[in-house]
Write a structure and sequence with these properties.
There is one protein chain. A hairpin with a 2-residue loop joins strand 8 (162-165) and strand 9. The longest helix is centred in the C-terminal third of the chain and has 13 residues, at 276-288. 9% of the residues lie in helices and 59% in strands. It is mostly beta strands and 289 residues long.
């Protein structure tokens, strides 16, 4: 039987196979042919804790052939076990700006699992989450100054007790008086006062006390010198009804004109097989006449 295809790496299989929960993917796929025989061998490497029942054994189609499971073999060996691993990390941050947080996270993470698997994982950017630790209340001081000129007396009752500033109400906190003489318009003078009043107030606000960043790192980790169970699922192929496959002509030694080409004709439910048995039947009949 002739080998047709080289071993396919796991990365290739992952790129061409639909992902499924708890799916197991082969470490190699080999195709063989020998005349009318078609075989595909899929090899899986599992740890002793993996469930071999997850190995796909259903029929599948490839290149016009339907492949059916023939047998599964098992081999125990010692080697390197490679698994997918996700590690979650948390760290404090003074900001919730995503761009800033990403610069604070390392792009890779070296890990050693409790089971002894070692590897370098990559940051999963989509997994980054930023949570607020809590809030506290703060206060701000505000002030404003108002000038009131040409007052007849330095009387507090002439001064407003509060003013509005930027939507806030500020209360009178201090007054400075300035006295001056002004003409009374008839040749004399009068005393006038200018008040400079200071108003103050406070406002409160809430602020985040800090942030906690959570991020996942994912990738492959490996463990050497572990028990590996290698399973090989062997599939046999048959021609589907939608394909037409021409097989080699059967050549008789006496150049008999009754030689036939064997066809497998697909389409609907019609399958015509003219084979070597027909040739022998004709030849035997002629030998007896």
């Amino acid at each position: 039987m002739k080998k047709l295809a080289i071993t396919l790496c796991v990365a290739t299989m992952l790129a061409t196979t639909a992902f499924a929960t708890n799916a197991i993917y082969p470490t190699s796929v080999e195709e063989f042919t020998g005349g009318e025989e078609y075989r595909i061998h899929k090899t899986y490497q599992l740890s002793r804790t993996d469930d071999p029942a997850l190995i796909p054994t259903d029929d599948f189609e490839r290149n016009g052939l339907t492949y059916t499971l023939l047998d599964v073999t098992r081999t125990d060996t010692v080697g390197v076990d490679v698994i997918q691993h996700t590690e979650s990390v948390t760290q404090a941050s003074s900001t919730n700006n995503t761009d800033t947080v990403l610069t604070q996270l390392s792009p890779t993470l070296d890990v050693t699992t409790q089971d002894g698997y070692v590897g370098t994982l990559a940051l999963d950017v989509d997994s980054v989450e930023i949570a607020t630790d809590g809030y506290a209340t703060g206060s701000r001081d505000h002030s404003a100054t108002r000038t009131y000129p040409n007052l007849s007396d330095s009387d507090l009752s002439l001064i407003p007790k509060s003013v509005e500033e930027d939507g806030r109400t500020l209360d009178l906190a201090d007054i400075q008086w300035e006295e001056s003489l002004q003409s009374d318009g008839i040749g004399g003078t009068v005393t006038r006062y200018t008040a400079t009043a200071t108003y103050t107030g406070t406002s409160t606000y809430q602020y985040a006390t800090g942030y906690t960043v959570t991020a996942n790192y994912t990738g492959e980790v490996a463990k050497t010198d572990v028990d590996i169970v290698e399973y090989t699922a062997m599939f046999g192929g048959t021609v589907t009804a939608e394909e037409v496959v021409e097989l080699p002509e059967i050549v008789a030694s006496d150049d008999d004109s009754s030689n036939n080409i064997l066809y497998i004709v697909g389409g609907g439910a019609t399958v015509l097989i003219l084979g070597y048995g027909v040739y022998l039947l004709i030849k035997r009949k002629r030998g007896t006449t």
